[in-house]
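ESCALATION

Customer reports they have been waiting on this structure for their group meeting. Please prioritize. Original submission:
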Amino acid sequence: RGLDFHKVTATEVVPSLKGEAFSNQLKGIVDTILNRSFYNNGDVRGVINKRWAFSDINTPRKSAYGSVQNVPMARVSEKIKNGVLAHLKNRSMGEESSVGGNLDYANPLLS
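Update from on-call: job pushed to the front of the queue and completed.
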């Protein structure tokens, strides 16, 4: 299921972002998944595949994949892979969430 983090992050991060802006968005996506999973009995895949949860995963758009399982690994860059792994490692070592307890990285006040 670790690859699910990579796939959803690859679909959500704005590709043109660089440096700190890229890193902050990546962390926000990962932390949003972690926060939502906490409130959903640890069901990472269920959280990611929930209708409307992530725009390229399960929305009624023609371009949406329908589920994270349908996202090809070719969509995941080395930069995404490395960033997700590094952030998950840092979180496991006690780093605080970049979004606090919020359930939406893009609109934390709506959480």
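Sent to customer with the following note: The chain is about 45% helix and 0% strand.
Escalation resolved.
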